[in-house]
Amino acid sequence: MSRQKTSATSEPDGLLPHNTRRSLPIALLRAREAVMGHFRPMLARHELTEQQWRVIRILAESGQVDATEMAEKAFILAPSLTRIIRSLEERGLISKHKDADDGRRVLLEIAPAGMKVIAEVGPESRAIYATLEAKFGKERVEKLLDMLDDLATLGV
Amino acid sequence: MSRQKTSATSEPDGLLPHNTRRSLPIALLRAREAVMGHFRPMLARHELTEQQWRVIRILAESGQVDATEMAEKAFILAPSLTRIIRSLEERGLISKHKDADDGRRVLLEIAPAGMKVIAEVGPESRAIYATLEAKFGKERVEKLLDMLDDLATLGV
DNA sequence: TTTCATTATTTAACATGTTAATAATAATCC
DNA sequence: GGATTATTATTAACATGTTAAATAATGAAA
């Protein structure tokens, strides 16, 4: 009956996890990798990681932002963010200072060198995204974004 | 005009990257995180990372598999896989030996202790997935998987 | 105002992601 | 058959992911 299994096994199906190729976690991972594969080489030419670019970009979008807010927007865990901030500050792309009203908070701001990066990388990034969107279809991208958002907020 | 911007900026929109909240890379990341958030605590109770579980699972699905094939199926880069294999072998969950026909290749096989893990974790994993699928809708999961696969194979 | 709980960030420790380089074996070419 | 090239896996070096614990500052309660 032309079963589509990838390979034979000696175990009955009932004892096995469902097929790995049709599982959401791996499918999401693959899709994300495919998308980032288009951006990464360009970012690498500018000596930026994906996460560093997200941080700079959000500072350009939102102005001054504290670390907690940044962690939420960029979807980066606090310990990673600490390291990324240190690195970006050492490179002079962002500036960091304590909040005067709340000594626990760290406020982040983009530096002139960071704005220069935005000016250089931004157009390239948008061009890549536009190409991707055109290939996949703008409405399908919208539909996909909606579904992904639903999935992400299932429990909320 | 009720602009929906998250916060004010002094820069004109044209110079900014498009809004971070509606970008595929972050949306895929968020969705994946939300999904894995359901599995990770359970896997942690069995002292397994997500990646280790994928490797064991694929060996249970596919029997003997070489490292290259495993890297493709589990979507894990070779250097990570090397470390994961070492760890799983030290824990006795898998066995590893050189291919007699091709001395470069490493063949992987699940060990009895690994089968025990499959028997313990498999049902829990399937239960979590089933709940997720029920919440999100089986057809929508299928549609999402199709779209993700399309996205992942855009350039192919 | 001293104490206690809470919140924001950092550090620690380990696992994985990422790219480049290396070592070992196979395959190809002359 | 010997040099060259390609393939497979590992190692190296650095960045990020992940959880837990430590620090530091704030806010609330006693």
SSE blueprint:
Two copies of one chain form a homodimer.
Chain A: H1 24-45, H2 50-62, E1 65-66, H3 67-74, H4 78-90, E2 94-98, E3 106-110, H5 112-136, H6 138-152
Antiparallel strand pairs in A: 1-3, 2-3
Helix pairs in contact in A: 1-5
Chain A binds a DNA duplex (30 and 30 nucleotides) through residues 40, 44, 49-52, 66-68, 76-84, 87, 102-106.
Can you put this structure into words, describing what you see?
Two copies of one chain form a homodimer. By secondary structure, chain A is mainly alpha-helical. In chain A, 62% of the residues lie in helices and 8% in strands. In chain A, strands 1-3-2 form a three-stranded antiparallel β-sheet. In chain A, a hairpin with a 7-residue loop joins strand 2 (94-98) and strand 3. In chain A, helix 1 (24-45) packs across helix 5 (112-136). The first copy, chain A, starts with 23 loop residues before the first helix and ends with a helix. Mean pLDDT of chain A is 89; it is low at 1-17. Chains A and B meet through helix 1, helix 2, helix 5 and helix 6 of A and helix 1, helix 2, helix 5 and helix 6 of B. Chain A binds a DNA duplex (30 and 30 nucleotides) through helix 2 and helix 4.
